[in-house]
Amino acid sequence: MWWGYSAPLDLRCEIEEKEDTSESLEVLTIGACDARHIVKTLASSYKHSDRSITYHIIEPTMEQVARSILLLSTCLDKDLGLQEATRYYLEIMGNTLLRPATAKYLAKHSKLLADTVTRTIDCPWLNLEKLKHKDRDQLEWIFKFWERATREGVPIVDYWDRRIRKSLKTRYDYRDGVFDWDYHMILKPRGHLNLTIHEYRFWRNNGIAFTWIEGEPARSNPTLVNNIIPLGEGFLHYAYLGDVTNGPFFTWALNEEKENIKLRATDIAEREVMRVIHEIRTKEPFCEELVAAHRDPSILNGIIVTEMPNPEIEHDSWTKHNMSKKNESIPWVSIPNAKVIFHPVSSMELLKSRSEYQNKFDTIWVAHNMTKHLPNVVPLLKKKARMLIESRKYLSELRKEDLQNFTKELKSIAQENGLQEVKNFNSENHTLALFCNN
Question: Which residues form the Dynein assembly factor 3 C-terminal domain (predicted)?
Fold first, then answer.
């Protein structure tokens, strides 16, 4: 629930461009989790005509809304160096443990984002007015919890281990064999060429996906815990309920072009995130030489971190200090032609009955686990516009017959709602299904 299972898209490429560029483009993403499509589309804006675009976002939980805002804000933070922002993004997105520098950034940034929700700090690209008051209150609680939990620590690795034990049951003592089977027999044959067995096994064991030689991850990442609610002067949360079988390798680390370069999934992800952050800032193509020269051939087939840190380091409490100065704000990159609007999850059943949203969107992207909402979403799509639906190709818990059933069910529900296939879709081979609204 914390990351997607398909590559980021430049949504402008999915929209038929018209000569009239005065009208704002409207796109809707449902359940994307990690803001990757917004980031990719912003980065590619220099390749298209100068046109304003409004991103409408629906996420199932407010924790996912908060993570999307945090990840997008990290990409737009001008105070961060290019590699610094890249690694902060990847660690926060996909690691249970953070390097101390990343944890300090998370604590400070979370406090500032909490002030953004209350409008103490103005955020020119973010619009939360569609959320209910209770949703905005919860969003503020989440950011405040992240700031406090980053300082005080949460036993995120213990939470992770509980999920693994519950998932594997009697196979827990033989978990390395289970991980190897999932990797060699499922993920590798389905096409993830750069994900190494060492990376995948290390992540399955402890939830750390992206590692580098500079610094060890030691502080817990509270953005991966669920159901955060305030209680007195503190907070309650449920622990970790996210993915423990597939990993965050299927967004920025997917290398479907099959380039003849031996890199880890971490290296591919770092290059691609660095590319989009550079292009957002400069409006120019990315030079491959900008990628840090840390790729020693001796480590390209493994991981950098080989041992977990002492748990006492993870739980060591940091003294609270003035994380942000009064009236301090985040120096975001200017994106005047973009606006990000978050809607409550309940709006999926309500928008179709509102005239201003009927036939409104130039394209709609839907996550693989949100397809049951297609009858509510299709009326929102413009005529002849595209509906993009994520596949389940990289879900290792699904077998061939499960993927075949998903393909049949998706085609059936699409046909019932007046959608026509643009390309023949098969969940075993494709990561995205393309439909057109008749």
Answer: 126-422
